[in-house]
Amino acid sequence: MKRVTAIATLCTLALVVSPFTTRAVAEDDPTSLSMQYGDGTHDSYSRTGDQYFFARGLEPLTGLVVNVWNITEADRSLVRRVAFHPPVGETLGVGAYEGANNTFPREGQASLSVYAPSRACGLSNTDASFEILDLAVAAEGWVQRLHATFSAPCPDGTSLSGEVLVQNATVPPPHLSVSVDIDPRGSLVGQEATVYARVSCSPVPTTIFLNYGMSQRRSSGQNFQLTTDCPTEPLTVALPQSAQIGRFRGGPAVADVGVATFDPLWGENLEFFFSDEVKLVPE
After folding, report:
1. What sign results for the dihedral spanned by CA atoms 93, 96, 102, 106?
2. DSSP 14
3. Do 83 and 17 reside in the same domain of the chain?
4. How many CB atoms lie under 10 A from the CB of residue 268?
5. Exposed/middle/buried for residue 84 (C-beta within 10 Å: 0-12, 13-18, 19+)
6. How far is CA 126 from the centre of its chain?
7. Does 107 lie in the same domain as 42?
8. d(CA 210, CA 31)
9. Given 43, 62, 205, 236, which is the most exposed site by the fewest CB atoms within 10 A?
10. For residue 197, which of 227, 234, 242 has the smallest C-alpha distance?
């Protein structure tokens, strides 16, 4: 009996961000984010093969989060984050928000949170401000357009400021789906059993982390891990394992495969679980 479940966590959405300007959002905005600091330095990020930009609108629109991630095969780290929240009970919209704090919104007080390791000041004050100049959010918090500026004094007397421009497609892209088709026939050589699975991802390829195991009536294998590419066309992956309790024998067994991955289009951490019956054939 095949079982498939899926869980999505940490939903953030793809965005396009451009450097400091005062113009309206245009379709030709370059993909980048810039922040200026009180010491005269600044940061600038461009969307490359390793950097992803996401914006998430909280439904109902009680806040909006902009994230910059660095994503490689060896690393997935948050580089920058800016979060805008209106006062409690209000909906985020076009307008200026003065006297914001850096923790949580309160009645009559908005919040501005900036994450920039080793660069951002503590913002432990109520003098931050931001202005939403343009905003359009579709279903599921998909940010179609955003133009926002922000600034805050720092406890050391310096300050930071920034501007974000977002221009996304009107129609949100589909969420990433992962398929793991477990072959009904597995092999058994001595005490090592191998199950084969065809993996594929849609609509874009990505990397997946597999946590798998197998059980029989009087035996079970420990969990094994494997990181593999997940192309849009099915790729056959061998999942070797040995019994931790008892011993594997030829005959029916149940193979379980857990998948963890990251949706590069929506900025979601995803988890899937697949389970199916297999027959181990001694070789």
Report:
1. negative
2. B
3. yes
4. 21
5. buried
6. 30
7. yes
8. 33
9. 236
10. 234
Return the minimum-mean-pLDDT range out of 30-44, 105-119, 195-209: 30-44
Inter-residue contact 229 to 188 (CB < 8 Å): no
**Domains of the chain: total:** 2
| Length of the chain (residues) | 283
129 residue type, one letter:
S
Residue with tokens 């095969």: 73
Tally of CB atoms within 10 A around 135:
21
Q: What is the pLDDT of residues 53-109, one digit of tens each?
A: 677 787 677 888 887 777 665 666 777 888 999 999 999 999 999 999 888 899 999
Structure tokens at 282: 């001694």
Beta strands 143-153 and 3-9: pairing type? unpaired
147 CB contacts (<8 Å, ≥6 apart)?
Answer: 24, 25, 132, 133, 134, 135, 163, 164, 165, 166
Query: Which CATH number belongs to the domain containing residue 206 in this structure?
Result: 2.60.40.1940
Residue bearing tokens 């600034």: 151
Predicted confidence (pLDDT) at residue 227 exceeds the cutoff of 70: yes
Domain assignment of residue 184, given as a range: 174-282
194: tokens are 């191998």
Residue of 46 and 172 predicted with greater confidence? 172
Please check whether residue 223 is in contact with residue 209, taking contact to mean a CB–CB distance below 8 angstroms.
Answer: no
Phi-psi region of 139 (alpha: psi -120 to 50; beta: other; left: phi over 0): beta
